[in-house]
Design goal:
The chain is an alpha/beta fold and 523 residues long. β11, α11 and β12 form a beta-alpha-beta unit. The strands form 3 sheets. It has a 6-stranded parallel β-sheet with strand order 2-1-3-4-5-6, sandwiched between helices. Strands 7-10-11-12-13-14 form a 6-stranded parallel β-sheet. Strands 8-9 form a two-stranded antiparallel sheet. α9 crosses α10 and α9 packs across α21. It is built from 21 helices and 14 strands. The chain is globular and about 70 Å long. The structure holds cobalamin (B12) and iron/sulfur cluster.
């Protein structure tokens, strides 16, 4: 049977990296079947195109996975595929929570023939075999022999053949920046960010988050050896194609067990499996100096920190009181001292937020080392404690907001400001963090660092700008490049002619970011 795994585009940014579930399920497919992957972010298709594709390629089963924000698109695609007679199975966090919606049991139209609830590592082979026999069931739940919910242990994790997978659509480098990057060092023909998981689960149970409910509060880890081998495979690929590969450890809280994370990072270092990586780690776990040392030594470059708010009352309200805003600055300094920077994520529209929250937050952000601040709105995702609380209080303004996804739009009324005011706060946060002046300041703040670091933060800021300000297409990029021409010119000038007034902190021969990977590539 020929199987198509399809991930709908998110309609906003076109994601910067592929989704792991597709590669994982591909690796877990029983032998004898061909699996094709299409990520709508990289290969956009409308309903008619996908229906035609499925017919032309004689696909026997389509699997679709989607987050809540993409579910409306996913349903439309599923409808088009089912209309040409091909069965669709859906999985992922949204349909796990609202299986009845996907199966048309809630009074609405039916979109899927079958739904895979929760983690599908063990159920996927069963689904494929049932589909091949024409005996697809409606619901597949991960249960053990006694009918009790079971979670994959991750100890026997499949090998994802990263060395062979076609990743050409995920090269993040626009051709226009090649000359600039060549000056930084060899080996910049491609740049990809690849998702790798080292464990699953987070017990913290923040009110707005689906993770504790979905993965359970039981934390499971892969073996160090299996993670290290995956990194070595990726590193070999980068070397082969004279490019760069960075890894996004998609674990929800990469250092949830600090002892284990330190042991993994030590093993990565010992095996010389360092690649540049980014991971999500909550601020409280970054108090440990030794962990920060190991992060830097093992290739960690960016840490995503869910700061959410600088107001302890807000944090307590959403069950995230373990975040201590008073220590955010120190945590970021601790990382920056090791040349590790942070993606700092904030949520506006919380119950204790009042107008001016964006500027109050930015006042703090400006005192921290430069990073990538991002701003979102408190969103009641289905089945979260937040959704239940707001529903019970009659505060939801769009009960099924996912049926008509609008980016950066609230679905409930905050307590101390209006919905419009909350939207304006998010706009303020993005506008003031990603203007040409703000980008120039971020580059300036790393003035005592090698050029590579400044190019790195500039390009990262440009890309992150696209999360809020649509930058799809050459014209949009050209406009942004024009706005930022002074900074671009300054960086190019330094790349071409060098810099005479380099501050003392930059020692002769200091390593540029990427040099570990490049060094290996040349070896
Ligand atoms: C990596 C990640 C991202 C990446 C992008 C996704 C990517 N390219 O990988 C980035 C950082 C960009 C991102 C952004 C966002 N994310 Co995110 N992200 C994740 C994260 C941490 C890991 C995803 C992952 O790969 N998991 C590991 C795989 C193996 O698990 P999985 O995807 O669930 O797949 C398993 C099952 O669900 C199932 N399955 C999944 N799909 C399918 C399909 C079929 C056919 C079958 C049979 C089974 C199946 O089988 C898999 C194996 O067991 C998850 C949390 C998490 N731990 O999953 C959040 C998560 C998916 N993100 C979430 C959210 C809310 C967001 C944002 C909206 C946040 C924001 N406010 O901006 C943005 C929106 C992104 C966008 N523009 O689309 C929510 C989604 C909840 C929901 N109900 O939709 C999650 C669950 C985290 C949370 N806080 O609750 N995210
Ligand atoms: S710490 Fe992060 S992953 Fe864990 S429950 Fe809170 S928001 Fe979700």
């Amino acid at each position: 049977m020929r199987i198509l795994l399809y991930n709908p585009d998110n309609g906003v940014t076109r994601n910067f990296m592929p989704h792991l579930w597709m590669f994982l399920l591909q690796s877990l497919t029983p032998p004898g079947h061909e699996v094709i992957l299409i990520d709508g972010n990289a290969q956009p298709m409308d309903e008619a195109q996908i229906a035609q594709y499925v017919r032309q390629h004689e696909i026997g089963l389509v699997g679709i996975g989607a987050m809540t924000r993409m579910i409306a698109k996913a349903y439309r695609i599923a409808d088009a595929i089912r209309a040409v007679g091909v069965p669709v199975v859906m999985g992922g966090p949204h349909v796990t929570e609202l299986a009845d919606e996907a199966l048309g049991r809630d009074g609405g139209p039916r979109h899927a023939d079958a739904v895979a609830l929760g983690e599908a590592d063990d159920t996927w082979p069963v689904i494929v075999n049932d589909a091949a026999r024409g005996e697809l069931k409606e619901i597949y739940a991960p249960v053990d022999a006694a009918g009790k919910e079971s979670k994959p242990s991750l100890k026997a994790y499949p090998t994802i053949p990263w060395d062979k997978i076609d990743l050409h659509q995920f090269n993040l480098l626009p051709k226009v920046v090649y000359p600039l990057l060549k000056k930084v060092g060899e080996g910049w023909g491609t740049f990809r960010i690849v998702p790798v998981e080292s464990g699953r689960g987070c017990p913290y149970g923040c009110e707005f988050c689906t993770v504790t409910g979905f993965f359970g509060d039981s934390i499971r880890f892969r073996t160090n050896e299996s993670v290290v081998n995956e990194l070595l495979l990726l590193k070999a690929r980068a070397r082969k194609e004279k490019g760069q590969i960075a890894v996004f450890f998609i674990d929800d809280n990469f250092a949830i067990n600090v002892k284990r994370t330190k042991s993994l990072l030590r093993d990565i270092i010992a095996a010389k499996a360092q690649v540049h990586w980014v991971a999500q780690i909550s601020a409280n776990l970054l108090r440990v100096e030794e962990l920060c040392d190991l992060i830097a030594a093992s290739g960690g470059k960016w840490v995503f920190i869910g700061m959410e708010s600088i107001d302890p009352t807000n944090l307590k309200d959403v069950n995230k009181g373990f975040n201590k805003p008073g220590e955010y600055g120190a945590v970021l300094e601790r990382l920056a001292k090791r040349n590790v920077y942070a993606i700092t994520s904030f949520i506006f529209g919380m119950d204790n937020d009042t107008t001016g929250v964006a500027e109050r937050t930015l006042e703090q952000v400006r005192t921290w080392p430069p990073g990538l601040p991002i701003f979102g709105l408190l969103t009641p995702l289905p089945a979260t404690p937040l959704y239940k609380r707001l529903e019970a209080a009659g505060r939801l303004t769009r009960r099924k907001h996912w049926q008509e996804f609008i980016p950066f739009a609230m679905a409930h009324t905050p307590l101390k400001m209006s919905i419009e005011e909350a939207h304006a706060e998010v706009n303020y946060g993005w506008s003031h963090s990603y203007s040409a002046e703000a980008l120039a300041q971020a580059v300036e703040a790393l003035d005592d660092q090698p050029l590579g670091y400044r190019i790195n933060i500039f390009l990262a800021r440009l890309c992150f700008r696209g999360i809020y300000f649509p930058m799809l297409g050459k014209l949009a990029w050209l406009k942004v490049a024009t706005e930022n021409r002074r900074t671009i010119f300054k960086l190019i000038k330094e790349a071409v002619f060098g810099r005479k007034d380099r501050p003392a902190r930059v020692a002769e021969g200091e390593e540029l970011p990427g040099s570990e990977v490049q060094g290996e590539a040349r070896a």
